[in-house]
MBL fold metallo-hydrolase
Amino acid sequence: MRLGPSLHRIGNDIVAVYLIDTPDGITLIDAGLAGQWRDLTAELTAMGRSISDIRGVVLTHGDTDHIGFAERLRRDHGVPVYVHEADAARARGEQSTKPDWGHMKLGATTRFLWYALTHGGVRTTHLSEVVTVRDGDVLDLPGAPRVIGMPGHSPGSIAIHVPVADAVFVGDALTTRHVLTGAAGPQPAPFTDDPAEALVSLHRLEGLEVTWVLPGHGTPWNRGVAEAVREVARAGATSDS
């Protein structure tokens, strides 16, 4: 799916991966589920591109539904994979957490689990090697992605600001479609290690002048950062009451 001149998405509102397309090559934001490899190659073909045009993968965090085909790219095609240093061990499979699932609805939860099951969610290959990043780093990749530390969902969660795409990629710092309830609109994401810290981290996005706020799960949001943050705060307050 083409969202803009330099911006594409594969997957869907359950699990999404983004491609930043520039004359210098392609940067991937996250690597979804292993079974979305076919979606990746199909989108590249439609773009007139190939795997050899991918210069790097930047992970918003190290959870298994974001690293799906990253090791395949790294191992078989020499594509470096970048992750915040605080999530490097998670991306390598050395650490894991079991956050509370919270409220669920049968239909939405079943759809999420079925999609994960049928797209390789139970056979994720962790990274053997990663390139670690820190808050404030501007990476030498197409689009010059800038790292914004967003701890909360995980210690090393980040947002990635890419001006050429008019976008900030937020991973699970927020969601626009709750995979366990089906609720739509910007709101706190499930499976979050520290929900209170995640809400505080959202303020680090304030002042970004971008159209697109792009989560790892949910509909692409094109009404800017300020309104997205307000909606998440409102949804968080409602869920706490």
Observations:
- The first helix runs from residue 37 to 46.
- The radius of gyration is 16 Å.
